[in-house]
C-alpha cells in the first residue's frame, strides 16, 4: 500500500492516499524509522521498507499493512 511519510511541526505523519487518511505516527520499532514497523494514532500498523537513514522527507513508499492479529 502506498504511504507518504512527512515531518510536520507536530512530528511524523503518514498519509494513505487510497483511504484519504492522514494520521500521526505514534510508535516506531526502529529509531531510524526504516525497516521496522510503525503504528498510527488510529491503531493501523505498517511494515516499512529498508531505506537509507538519510532519506529525505516527504517520501512516498510501498508499505505492508500489518493485520491487527499480528
Q: Could you please describe the fold and organization of this structure?
A:
This protein has about 70 residues and is an all-beta fold. It is about 0% helix and about 50% strand. The protein has one domain: NifT/FixU-like (OB fold (Dihydrolipoamide Acetyltransferase, E2P), Beta Barrel), CATH 2.40.50. It is built from no helices and seven strands. Strands 6-1-2-3-4-5-7 form a seven-stranded antiparallel β-sheet, with no helix packed on it. A hairpin with an 8-residue loop joins strand 3 (about 20-30) and strand 4. It starts with a strand and ends with a strand. The mean pLDDT is about 95.
Task: Set out the fold topology.
Layout (H helix, E strand, L loop, with lengths): L1 E7 L2 E6 L4 E8 L8 E4 L4 E3 L11 E4 L1 E3 L4
Antiparallel strand pairs: 1-2, 1-6, 2-3, 3-4, 4-5, 5-7
Protein name: Nitrogen fixation protein NifT
Organism: Rhizobium aouanii
